[in-house]
Design a protein that fits this description.
Layout (H helix, E strand, L loop, with lengths): L1 H33 L8 H24 L9 H29 L1
Length: 105
């Protein structure tokens, strides 16, 4: 049972890391589009931008409702990355320890 719990927490760790990288990718892609480095008429660029936006939009929407752009700069991806990193580094290990202790004894 302990191996299953460890496996679940490893999967959650990698899922949280994937969320961070997708948010970073979306931010970089939006900058490249804004500075006209990447043209959305390119089919691959459009599909990649659409995918990244579709994945990150539901995660960023609650923060965008609360935090307005500061000077035209959207800081919600940074806040999301900080919260996901804190969850990954603080909350997840604490939950894993509590789960291991409850199974172990």
């Amino acid at each position: 049972m302990a191996a299953l719990i460890e496996f679940v927490f490893v999967i959650l760790h990698y899922l949280l890391q994937a969320i961070i990288w997708v948010v970073i990718g979306n931010a970089i892609m939006s900058w490249l589009i804004a500075f006209d480095v990447i043209n959305l008429r390119n089919r691959f660029a459009y599909q990649l931008a659409h995918f990244l936006d579709a994945v990150t939009r539901p995660l960023l929407r609650p923060f965008r409702r609360i935090i307005p752009p500061l000077g035209g700069v959207d800081i919600t991806p940074v806040i999301l990355i900080i919260l996901v990193s804190a969850t990954d580094q603080v909350l997840l290990p604490a939950l894993a320890t509590a789960a291991a202790q409850s199974v172990g004894g």
